[in-house]
Structure formats: C-alpha cells, structure tokens
C-alpha cells in the first residue's frame, strides 16, 4: 500500500538568494516532485516576493520594515513567522522543518506554547556571535529541535564535538538543468550593465563578508594582476541579514590603497544582489570562481560553478575536503594571499587541470536534490515514529 504524502512546512529566514534559502527552495521542489505537499514559509519585508519561483505554496510572513539593529531584526522575523504559522494551522503539518536560527526560534516558541508537537532543524553553519541574545537564539534553534540535520559531515561532527548534539548528514544537490556549460546569446544581455570585460574574470559569489574571506581574495587579486594586467574581480550577490558594513568599508579602503578602481568596467565590479536569472550566465562568463571562505556549511557555489564548466579555487578546509580533490578543483590556503593567487594562476593555465570529462561529471552525479529529498523523507518518517501525539 502506497504511503500517503507528507504535509511538510519548510521555513527559511529570508526571500533573498542565500545558500540556505536556495537549499529550501530546491529541497521543496524535489519533495513536491516526489508527491509530497510542501509549504514554504519566509519572512518578507514590505511584501517582497521570493527571489525564485516555486511549484510549492509560499507563505510570506509580513515584516513591516527593516529594524535598526540585528537583535530587533531577528525578533521581528521570529514574530512574523510565528504569526504566519498560527494563521495556517501549524499542527496540521506532519513535519515542521527550520533551515536556520530565526525559523528555529519561531518553532521553538510555538512548541513551548503548545501550538505544535515538535520540529526538525537543518544546521548549515553557525555564526560567531558576541551579543548574548543572538548567542542564545542560535543555541535554542538547534537545542530545542527533535532532530538536527547538517549539510556536511564536518558540521555533523562539530555539532556533537562542540555542542553535544547528535546530528545526521543530509547533503545538498545541484540543479544540472539550471547550471550548464551551454552558452547562448542570452548570456550577454544581463551582464552588459556591469561592464564585465576582464581577461580573465575572477568571480566570487556571496558579497563582501569576513566569512567569505573577501579581503584576502582582494590581496590575492592584486598579486594576480602583476601577471594578468587585465584581470577583473567580480564580487556578486550579498543579500545578507547580518551587518557587514565595517568589513565592506575595509574592502573599499584597501582596494583604493591598491589603486584598484571599483565600478562597471573597472578592475573590480561589485554587483550587489542580482536577479536570479543572471547567475547561470555569470558562472559561464567567469574564467574561474573563487570560493576561499573561512567557514562554510557546504559550498553550493562550487558545484554550480563546476556544472557551468568553470574551474574553481577552493579553501583547503572542511567541508570542501570531504567531497573535492585535486581532480576537480585548485586548492588554496585561505589565510595566505600568495597561496590564493597561485591557485588562481593555476586555474587559468589549462583550466587548472580540472578533469571536466570524467571527475567533474562523477562528482555532480553524487549530489542531486532528488537523492537529498529521499534522504529527508526517510528521516522524517523515522522522526515521526518517535514524536509524541
């Protein structure tokens, strides 16, 4: 007898294109394709739409305006998600699944108030907060969950080692229909306004952030320009809820000191948040994608770049060392600008020796959203056996 479809609520912290939000949307689609009923809940400031369409129902939790500080911003989003859930009978869902600390706290509060029986939580990564309220919110969002999933073995191990939380690994996927090596004339138009004319183009995705190690990449780019005078660094995206203004100012000040102009057609292009349809074209336009982060949950950008036929320079740290090797990437030491610059140069010489014929396709086939959905369903089913009615 065929099991009935699950009623699943997936909760994310934003409508903007961040890794955890992409994960939510792609997992939702795969669960929907498998026959399950999925609703996505996300806070929305001023009625902003989800950055990418979905076949699933999307409930936007109304947030009146951006708050003046991070604590207030988080509180307003927790409150908005709670209100949206309560208006949609949260107890009617078989699974309530938080993808971040904001939605995790909304569910933790509803559980405390008796509105839901429990919830599960995916930890993509944790941040190093110093504000006590943020520290406590981050802790509660995983500590109060009935089950914790992580997108890499590195974070699964860290959750147990550092926090005593028994988690399980459920990896990401990559959309091989969206990210492809196929180029056509439509790639040119969405990129024209940025003046992306470099030879070569170094692409970094995720905006200017300390976690993304953007300042160290800037130093490496300056070294690269010593041998590749027409190189261009494109920093794409950056729609974050956290305050990165101080770090961004340091980036702009250092670029000025290095005589590297920033703007359309300049040595450095900072795009800001982008329309969703621009990213596949941007991956294909780049000569190399740099992912020299200091901390990542998984690093979806790496798979998206490789699926687009673009070499990647990657920090030689976990979680990357779990699923990458020298056949599919060029390694760099993230704290060493010379190491990053050297890896960039290697990637530009015969595409870094990356095996796009065999090793890359084999890697990409290991990570599918369909497989991730199957793994989630098995874990949901197991969790429901132990959740009190």
| Class inferred from helices and paired strands | alpha/beta
Helicity, in percent?
25-40%
| Name of the CATH first level of the largest domain | Alpha Beta
Specify Rg, calculated over alpha carbons. 21 Å
β-sheet strand percentage: 15-25%
Residue stretches low in confidence (pLDDT < 50, at least 5 long) are: none
- Going by CATH, the homologous superfamily of the largest domain would be Glycogen Phosphorylase B
β-strand number: 13
Return the average pLDDT rounded to an integer.
Answer: 91
Q: Please write the string of helix (H) and strand (E) elements.
A: EHEEHEHEHEHEHEHEHEHEHEHEHHH
What is the CATH topology assignment of the largest domain? Rossmann fold
Which outline best applies?
globular
- Cα distance, first to last residue? 23 Å
Major beta-sheet overview: 7 strands, parallel
Side by side, the strands of the main sheet go 3-2-1-4-5-6-7
